[in-house]
């Protein structure tokens, strides 16, 4: 479903990706591991169209998504890709449900439908009693689950997660990671997860090990 061909990325004279080929199948849960500086985040950002490669291409299905720009790029991302980061990046002045709804409103779905789906997702993620809480009224694990619901609101085909458990204690980290599997099983989503968590990284369909700008 998602294919990258011969990706390179240079920052001035530093080559941080040195020719990466990768294919991810629909519904697959892939973890990307490797030491700090190996190029994991850079690769995830290129796969998620958050950044453009110096050379090489990324395809979703058969569509070359490498050179999308402006509104076409923003629309593509909003439609097809969900993002989860180490820090939840929820908007502090909005409630949990409002945070989850925003990408759906931007997408242009009907407000009532977006809200219904947001409630469904938050309930699925065990946050039924937290809909109207602001982020600072939620625990770290709850905040991150709200961020997961937000990533899923537009029913993206791929969810890209950069150290999603990095700010959680081991219990919450394990629960969040298991949640990715149950979401995949329920909705068929594909997850690509960069992680340093040595306990959770092997719990995936496939681990990609990066070293010095390459998948080894
Ligand atoms: P990882 O996620 O495996 O820790 P990164 O992809 O974040 O690795 O970084 C790979 C290398 O690229 C590192 O040496 C990092 O310092 C460098 N790098 C990342 N982003 C930039 C940037 N915007 N400008 C310059 N160098 C960068
Ligand atoms: P299109 O954008 O082609 O009209 P749809 O809006 O019918 O497509 O739905 C595309 C995907 O978004 C579907 O898989 C559906 O599950 C999901 N979806 C539909 N309605 C909503 C909604 N109100 N909020 C979020 N996701 C939705």
Automatic annotation (TrEMBL):
Quote the CDD domains the UniProt record gives. Answer: ABC_MJ0796_LolCDE_FtsE
Q: Where is the ABC transporter domain?
A: 2-216
Q: Does the keyword Transmembrane helix apply?
A: no
Which of UniProt's keywords are assigned here?
ATP-binding, Nucleotide-binding, Transport
Molecular function per GO: ATP binding
Membrane-spanning parts: none
Q: Does the keyword ATP-binding apply?
A: yes
Q: Which InterPro entries match?
A: AAA+_ATPase, ABC_transporter-like_ATP-bd, ABC_transporter-like_CS, ABC_transpr_LolD-like, MacB-like_ATP-bd, P-loop_NTPase
Q: Which family does it belong to?
A: Belongs to the ABC transporter superfamily.
Q: Which PANTHER family match?
A: IMPORT ATP-BINDING PROTEIN, LIPOPROTEIN-RELEASING SYSTEM ATP-BINDING PROTEIN LOLD
Name of this protein: ABC transporter ATP-binding protein
Naturally occurring in which organism (per UniProt): Chitinophaga horti
């Amino acid at each position: 479903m998602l294919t990258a061909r011969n990706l390179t990325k240079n920052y001035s004279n530093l080559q941080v990706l040195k020719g990466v080929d990768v294919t991810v199948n629909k519904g697959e849960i892939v973890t990307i591991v490797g030491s700090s500086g190996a190029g994991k985040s850079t690769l995830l950002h290129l796969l998620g169209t958050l950044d453009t490669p110096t050379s090489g291409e990324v395809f979703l299905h058969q569509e070359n998504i490498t050179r999308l720009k402006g509104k076409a790029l923003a629309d593509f991302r909003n439609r097809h890709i969900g993002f989860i980061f180490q820090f939840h990046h929820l908007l502090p002045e909005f409630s949990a449900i409002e945070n989850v709804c925003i990408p759906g409103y931007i997408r242009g779905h009907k407000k009532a439908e977006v809200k219904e789906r947001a409630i469904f997702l938050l309930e699925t993620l065990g946050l039924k009693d937290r809909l109207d809480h602001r982020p600072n009224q939620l625990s770290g694990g709850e905040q991150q689950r709200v961020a997961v619901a937000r990533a899923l609101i537009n029913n993206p085909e791929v969810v890209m997660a950069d150290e999603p458990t990095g700010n959680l204690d081991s219990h919450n980290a394990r629960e969040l990671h298991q949640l990715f599997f149950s979401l995949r099983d329920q909705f068929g989503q594909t997850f690509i997860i960069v992680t340093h968590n040595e306990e959770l990284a092997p719990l995936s369909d496939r681990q990609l090990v990066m070293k010095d700008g390459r998948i080894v």
